[in-house]
Design goal:
alpha/beta, five-stranded mixed sheet, Arc Repressor Mutant, subunit A, D-Maltodextrin-Binding Protein, domain 2, 44% helix, 10 helices
């Protein structure tokens, strides 16, 4: 065993190591505090949730800002918001804290099984009817993962909302996200038997101009123009109608009630078509497909819970159940081509 011959120098070295360790521990705690403040948008609420005094919370945030030499938070008497530097730092803090949590859990458990809380966002209809059953099946394999599912009719901000993962339908505009395509989803035009009895059934896309087309106001998907390809070429039909909504389920219910026609992803209306509540039209034409993605923030080391969940969804939706009522329209062939 080595011994120090200079007790004063040894004591100084030990104190230096101890101080550096405490500084690093304080920095990690300051990151936790800053992240909580950014999430709560309020110092007092963050202090309450962390069980700290408001003064201590302010001290942690000030310590980080002084160390970095930049302002991370805009403070006013009425509101609190992150600066651009604050948003960037928040994303890095979330990554670091997640890595620390996963490392601690792995060491304590003695293995690398997924565990912890997985925060997922998804469009409401897909989340309720398809993602929730998938989560239940996933948890039968990984019971130590707790899942928080948030259903949004908007595109969520993963860093701002502390999300591990989001399910996106339609084009992806944020190139900073890592995306995995889960499925290529067919869209179909359908209406109720009562509507067709009253208004007739369109046979060719141009005939839609004489019908009430119900439109979706969901930013990633454009519903003002319905596009078709078929034996008579490509058609771009302006969709005009007397009802629109930002929630796809509202349009589905409206169509079932006979209000008009809808162009919806197959997963939305598959059960209604199978039950006869809705009927498809223009079966000789193919409407545009939309891609379904799982997206997450760039991470050098992806957590086990996110990695296993994405892999599970890719396998589950390779041959999705919602495609069954539309197999004759080519859904199965498209998925087979994607998997090769």
């Amino acid at each position: 065993m080595l011994q120090c011959t200079n007790s004063k120098q040894c004591r100084y070295s030990c104190e230096t190591l101890t101080n550096n360790y405490l500084i690093n521990m304080d920095k990690l705690q300051s990151m936790r505090v800053f992240t909580k403040v950014a999430h709560c948008r309020n110092f007092s609420r963050a202090a309450e949730e962390l069980e700290l005094s408001r003064a201590m919370v302010s001290k942690h945030v000030n310590h980080i800002e002084n160390a970095l030499g930049v302002r991370l938070i805009h403070r006013t008497t009425r509101q609190l918001s992150l600066t651009e530097a604050g948003q960037q730092y928040l994303a890095r803090c979330q990554q670091i804290l997640a890595d620390v949590e996963e490392a601690e859990q792995s060491i304590v458990a003695g293995n690398y099984r997924p565990k912890g809380t997985l925060r997922v966002a998804a469009p409401p209809s897909f989340g309720m009817f398809h993602l929730t059953p998938a989560i239940a099946a996933y948890k039968s394999f990984y019971p130590e993962v707790d899942v928080v599912l948030l259903l949004h009719d908007r595109v969520p901000d993963l860093a701002e909302e502390e999300l591990d993962l989001a399910i996106r339908l339609g084009p992806l505009e944020d190139s900073t996200l890592i995306a995995h395509r889960l499925a290529s989803v067919q869209t179909v035009v359908c209406g109720s038997p009562a509507y067709f009895k009253r208004r007739g059934r369109p046979v060719h896309p141009p005939e839609l101009s004489r019908h009430n087309c119900l439109r979706l106001r969901y930013p990633p998907l454009k519903s003002d123009t319905w596009v078709f390809r078929g034996p008579r070429g490509k058609f771009e039909i302006p969709a005009r109608g007397t009802f629109e909504s930002n929630i796809a389920d509202a349009l589905r219910v409206a169509a079932i009630e006979g209000m008009g026609l809808i162009l919806q992803p197959a997963y939305m209306v598959g059960a209604d078509v199978a039950a006869g509540r809705l009927q498809t039209i223009l079966d000789d034409y193919e409407s545009e497909r939309v891609d379904l993605h799982a997206v997450y923030l760039h991470r050098r080391h992806l957590s086990a819970k996110v990695r296993t969940f994405v892999d599970f969804l890719k396998d589950r939706f390779l041959q999705p159940r919602w495609a069954a009522p539309f197999d004759g329209r080519g859904e199965g062939e498209a998925h087979h081509a994607r998997s090769n």
